[in-house]
Amino acid sequence: MVKNFVSFVGNRKTFSVGFLFATSSLVFGIWVASIPGVKARLGFSDGGLGLSLLLSPSGAITGMLLSSKVFSKISVGKWMYVGYSTYCIVMIGLINSQNRLMFWLCLYCFGMIGFLNGVSANATVNLMEKKTSRLLMATCHGMYSMGGALSAGIAALLFLIHIPSGWQIVIVATIILAIININKPYLLINNDIIHQGSSFKLPSFSILGISFICMVSFMAEGCVADWSAIYLKEILFAPKAMISLGYAGFSVAMTLGRLNGDMLIAKVGSKTVVVTGGLLAASGFLIVVTSPAVIVAIIGYILVGLGCCCTVPVLFRASANIPGVSTIEGYAMVTTGGLIGFLTGPSVIGFISEKTNLSWGLSLLILMGLLSAYTAWRNPFIKNKETVRESLPYDEQIF
Fold first, then answer.
1. What average pLDDT does range 323-343 have in this prediction?
2. Least packed by Cβ within 10 Å: which of 62, 242, 310, 327?
3. In this structure, is residue 306 part of a structural domain?
4. Distance CA 88, CA 123 (A)
5. Which of 203, 218, 232 is nearest to 339 (CA)?
6. Secondary structure in 3-state letters for 346-364
7. What is the per-residue pLDDT across 336-376, written as a single tens digit (0 to 9) for each?
8. Which domain holds residue 312?
9. CATH code at 268?
10. CA distance 360 to 352
11. Coil, strand or helix: which one is 161?
12. Which among 168, 82, 73 is positioned nearest to 121, based on CA atoms?
């Protein structure tokens, strides 16, 4: 794993794209740690914050509707450079929002730009895999998870030396923008124009089950991101230096799982990985909501990460092999289901928490994990017996 990762990072063409995955989670991890402070500063209740978070999926829906026009005119490389740079600026505004209007506007832009960024980066990785006959997707998603773990650690460290979230995001975003500009030539060489020939379509019945599993996986990730710090602080009374460690543990587990994901899938099979993952995630949330101590809850979040780590790569592969569904269409449908879960899940938890408490809100994820495991077990397109390519080194020229 280490040798493969070093060679991946050592190739500027793969690293320039892989770093963008880390970029998303680096700034997002700072956002996670800032949520309790933003909530208090702007005077939100759990329900009010949950309602506000609906602006992110609204922005994502806008991005989804605009994606065909955007990527029929702008190359994925150009969008990656501009989109991810803009994303950093939006996150600075979001965390430093001085009023609710600014907060809501930034949340909406966060959802819209984040959706388009995800399409451009994942589509680029898919094209690179086809051109090189090498697996890149799991490693790139591992970069995302690694960025989340790193940012949570950075937030905890900076809190210890009394640097607030508003300055944390400025520091991290500035470093990211510098690296993006250094890698600009390697991003712009990805000059492919994505044009699907039609606007977004609702998922067909053949892929609805896979889309649902992706929705649950992303819903779990979104809820860990948005609510873990609040749960540790307000329910378990964790000190400020520890409130980001739930998300950190989750992200570390996701990173290790994804960097070993292709080997694991080849060994035990896709269906086994996804079914077991759903059960592990459900068990993790059960531990979180019944935990008597902060450390126990963090262990629960680690189990959630282990359960979710390999699900999305499996679903992308499955969606590309459904009869009558093109690879691009399958990817778009699965991604849409995932984003719905990631962006609306935290809002649902907020509404439940407002009526009961946050423990009951997070308990919804136990049921969703079990339903995900059952759906994967019954889904004919997620198979154990299938051809899985082995990962190859990246230190040669890939184009």
1. 70
2. 327
3. yes
4. 21
5. 218
6. HHHHHHHHHHCCHHHHHHH
7. 788 778 767 888 888 888 888 888 989 999 999 999 999 99
8. 12-191+205-378
9. 1.20.1250.20
10. 7
11. coil
12. 82
